TrEMBL record:
<feature type="transmembrane region" description="Helical">
    <location>
        <begin position="114"/>
        <end position="132"/>
    </location>
</feature>
<keyword id="KW-0812">Transmembrane</keyword>
<feature type="transmembrane region" description="Helical">
    <location>
        <begin position="175"/>
        <end position="197"/>
    </location>
</feature>
<feature type="transmembrane region" description="Helical">
    <location>
        <begin position="379"/>
        <end position="402"/>
    </location>
</feature>
<protein>
    <recommendedName>
        <fullName>TRAP C4-dicarboxylate transport system permease DctM subunit domain-containing protein</fullName>
    </recommendedName>
</protein>
<keyword id="KW-0997">Cell inner membrane</keyword>
<feature type="transmembrane region" description="Helical">
    <location>
        <begin position="442"/>
        <end position="463"/>
    </location>
</feature>
<dbReference type="InterPro" id="IPR004681">
    <property type="entry name" value="TRAP_DctM"/>
</dbReference>
<feature type="region of interest" description="Disordered">
    <location>
        <begin position="214"/>
        <end position="239"/>
    </location>
</feature>
<feature type="transmembrane region" description="Helical">
    <location>
        <begin position="91"/>
        <end position="108"/>
    </location>
</feature>
<feature type="transmembrane region" description="Helical">
    <location>
        <begin position="311"/>
        <end position="335"/>
    </location>
</feature>
<dbReference type="InterPro" id="IPR010656">
    <property type="entry name" value="DctM"/>
</dbReference>
<dbReference type="Pfam" id="PF06808">
    <property type="entry name" value="DctM"/>
</dbReference>
<feature type="compositionally biased region" description="Gly residues">
    <location>
        <begin position="214"/>
        <end position="232"/>
    </location>
</feature>
<feature type="transmembrane region" description="Helical">
    <location>
        <begin position="408"/>
        <end position="430"/>
    </location>
</feature>
<keyword id="KW-1133">Transmembrane helix</keyword>
<feature type="transmembrane region" description="Helical">
    <location>
        <begin position="347"/>
        <end position="372"/>
    </location>
</feature>
Length: 469
């Protein structure tokens, strides 16, 4: 009965448009009252504060801060320029630039929406000028941004490691390494899907306009100068003679030189973690300090006056995540005390003992859930339910973590609540319904990767095993 009250009130509130964090918290409080009266509510502050005070979760606000600083510092724009210099002159090169730039920034931010926001204002207008329909340009960017929670460092992997610790032990470092191959596979799948996009005649623009709207590549008010480098030019223009090849080589060298500080960020973060020099939490602090030094003294696009805006922005984003963590922890407490997860697990295992079908059921459930709630909330709610079932069926905990995160990455681009779709549509000023129409080929590509990750455990495990994590 408590399970019916808990999940029933949660989904009713969600359907009424109440934000996820408040839906979780209110549903948990209603269930606690149903369990033993208003006196049970005294447990709420204890559970809430204990959950957000975790040292492991301290990495989240610092990774968010690092991502915001890098966006203000112009790192994302220089990564776009470098990716364009590498492949932008090829056919469909600009679409590939989107995916490469998103992959690079994902290895910095650990967040899907942050990745979309960082490069969207540069690349969506450039794609449209290159003849791509607005819905395809926007949906491609939204889909590429979903790599933000798969490619390490990933906030989602940190959350999974914390929540699953009650059922099976897995280190954050192992999960980070395990996400590398699936992230590359998703990037490759998106590249294939992007090659199938129809195009009209590119719109001619003056060379070096930086993609026009790329000048707004930073956050509003950030005071960045410049734009997206070569993103607005004719990405498919053929090279003419040795002079063009030399110019292209010089352009590649120049863009690489400017992008080096940004390219060093994932090496510093992941190299420090994998080398045992720093913990994931410490690496987040190092990333934030490094990004600040780059913005202040290397690129010089951050002024001391902007630090207040940066800190406020990062604090607001962190507060949203931690509010969800706290509310979801209270929700999970009710689930645990009433043995709801155990009952659901037993019911699922009673339906079938076939591992293939059990994994498929988990995938379907998470695809549905991901369409309505964010990844952090979904992990807190469904890891206690799904992980024990899959562990009992013989699925490795690393595979479970990667499968769930890839699954929820698709939720970032699944209506009605796919947050990447909203962010990208807002940047492009395209109706959400139009963006949804363009998402189908990219969703199909992601679904193929999800099935490979779920049913081929070696894709998640071989690299961590090889490196000894």
């Amino acid at each position: 009965m408590i399970g019916v009250v808990l999940f029933g009130s949660f989904f009713v509130l969600l359907l009424l448009g109440v934000p996820v964090a408040f839906s979780l918290g209110v549903a948990a409080c209603v269930s606690l009252v149903a369990m033993g009266g208003f006196g049970e509510l005294s447990i709420v502050p204890n559970v809430f504060t204990a959950s957000v005070a975790s040292e492991t979760l301290l990495a989240i606000p610092f990774f968010i801060l690092a991502g915001v600083i890098m966006e203000y510092a112009g790192i994302s724009r220089r990564l776009v320029d470098f990716a364009h210099a590498c492949v932008g002159r090829r056919k469909h090169g600009l679409a590939i630039v989107v995916i490469i730039a998103a992959f690079f920034f994902s290895a910095i931010s650990g967040s899907g929406p942050a990745t979309v926001a960082a490069i969207g204002s540069i690349l969506i207008p450039a794609l449209i000028r290159q003849g791509y329909a607005a819905r395809h340009a926007t949906s491609l960017l939204a889909s590429a941004g979903s790599m933000g929670i798969i490619v390490p460092p990933s906030v989602a992997f940190i959350i999974f490691a914390v929540v699953v610790s009650d059922y099976a032990g897995v280190s954050i470092v192992r999960l980070f390494v395990a996400g590398i191959v699936p992230g590359i596979l998703l990037a490759a799948a998106l590249v294939v899907a992007s090659l199938l996009l129809p195009r009209t005649q590119p719109v001619a623009v003056a060379a070096g306009t930086a993609g026009g709207d790329g000048g707004n590549g930073g956050r509003t008010g950030g005071g960045h100068s410049g734009g997206g480098g070569h993103s607005g030019g004719d990405a498919d223009a053929p090279a003419a003679g040795d002079g063009a090849e030399v110019a292209a080589a010089h352009g590649l060298a120049a863009s690489f030189g400017k992008a080096i500080p940004g390219l060093l960020v994932p090496l510093i973060i992941l190299g420090g973690i994998y080398g045992g020099i720093v913990t994931p939490t410490e690496s987040a602090v190092v990333a934030a300090v490094y990004a600040l030094l780059v913005g202040l003294f290397v690129y010089r696009e951050i002024s001391l006056r902007q630090l207040y805006r940066i800190l406020v922005t990062a604090s607001a984003q962190s507060a949203v995540v931690m509010l969800i963590v706290g509310a979801a922890s209270v929700f999970a407490y009710v689930v645990t005390v009433n043995e709801i997860a155990e009952n659901i697990s037993e019911a699922l295992l009673g339906l079938t003992g076939n591992t293939v079908l059990i994994v498929l059921m988990a995938i379907v459930v998470l695809l549905i859930v991901g369409a309505f709630i964010d990844a952090v909330s979904a992990l807190y709610l469904f890891v206690p339910i799904i992980a024990p079932v899959l562990l009992e069926a013989g699925v490795d905990v690393t595979t479970i973590g990667v499968m769930m995160v890839v699954n929820l990455a698709l939720g970032l681009v699944t209506p009605p609540v796919g947050i990447n779709l909203f962010v990208a549509a807002g940047i492009a000023k395209v109706p959400l319904a139009e963006v949804v129409k363009g998402i189908r080929p990219f969703f199909a590509a992601g679904l193929v990767v999800l099935l490979l990750v779920a049913y081929v455990p070696a894709l998640s495990n071989w690299l961590p095993d090889l490196l000894g994590f």
